[in-house]
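Appendix B. Extra example for self-study. Work through it before the problem class; the solution is given directly after the inputs so you can check yourself.
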Amino acid sequence: MLLLGAAFLVLATLGIVRLPDFFTRAHAMGKSETLGAILILVGLAVLNGLSLASFKLVLILILIAVANPVATHALVRAALRSGLAPWVRKTHDQAPDSRGQG
Amino acid sequence: MTTLVLYLAVLLALLMAASMYRLIKGPTIFDRMVAAGAMGTKSLLLLAFVGFLYGRTDVFVDLAIAYGLLNFISAIVVAKYFERRREEAP
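Solution. Structure tokens for the complete assembly:
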């Protein structure tokens, strides 16, 4: 479970570094990062045994599962309202018929 | 099992360094905020790992809760601020 969560975190960071646009980056961060953090925290709670610290780890898990998508959504909405245009593939500008797919 | 957690903590630190690239290079302020949020989440997990490695999970988990709350509040406040500033500008 820890390894799976770390794999998701690697994917999220790869998306943040490599993707071409803010919206795609936020997409990569909002979901993969949340899933990776949840998996890692569940793994740590199982590894830690039944105690107060495990309860607090589950509390952090709930906090992340609620707060991370909300924060990402708020940032994306602010970006969209402040006039940041979504990314369109360059070749689609010459052939506007194929813009819809993708 | 401690060795696995140690390796994962090192991997997490490397991922934080990779997010730092976007934090410095990002073209817009929102890129930087998303990268900062990702780094905040990763530092929270790193705190949990360090707490497990030191055997003092209670203390470090409390710190991790504080980090998570601060991360969330800062992202919300920045989003609200830039949204409102653009509405007043035109």
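Self-check: The helical segments of chain B are 2-25, 29-54, 57-88. If your reasoning did not lead you there, revisit section 3.
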